[in-house]
Amino acid sequence: RQRVSLIRTGNGENIIHPPSRRRERVLGWLLDLLSAPPPDAAPERRCDALPLPLGSVPRNAIILWLGEIPTVLPPPAWTALRRQHRCIGIRVEDGWEREPAVGLSGTLYDPTTGEAFPAGDSAQMRTAHAAWRARREALWAEWWPDPADRLVVDTAADPLAALVRLLAQQGSRRLAAAR
Hints:
The protein is of the alpha/beta class. It contains five helices and seven strands; from the N terminus they run ββαβαβαββαβα.
């Protein structure tokens, strides 16, 4: 049975639960995680630096990054961490992140950047959205260069089922490579 560790970061703090094989302990951590208040999305409170001290992660661990794509390039420590561990980025994406908001009027506010912008279906809005999406995807690829280490889940999908499928595919790929 594998050991599980949970590292939760947000609102300027890091909580590191040491590796454990005890199911009750891990379920307690998950309950704490799911009952915690959501992280502050304000730009000055975002945690874009590498939240993991390298020594806190057991060797050969699989690290699941659940959350937004960091808004900066990865620090050198991230490359070292990826060399030692399998790092998988998981994000939830809604329809507004894939396509510009159409049919809306007024002003929209983005809590992650602190910016307000006019809503509407205009060429300017579509161009701005395409540029934002391209920057975001480029950062996603910088943090997780291997597409097999990236999982995007739709808001209507089951994230746990998607994660299980991803891990099963990776296991199959490793078995095929070992042959």
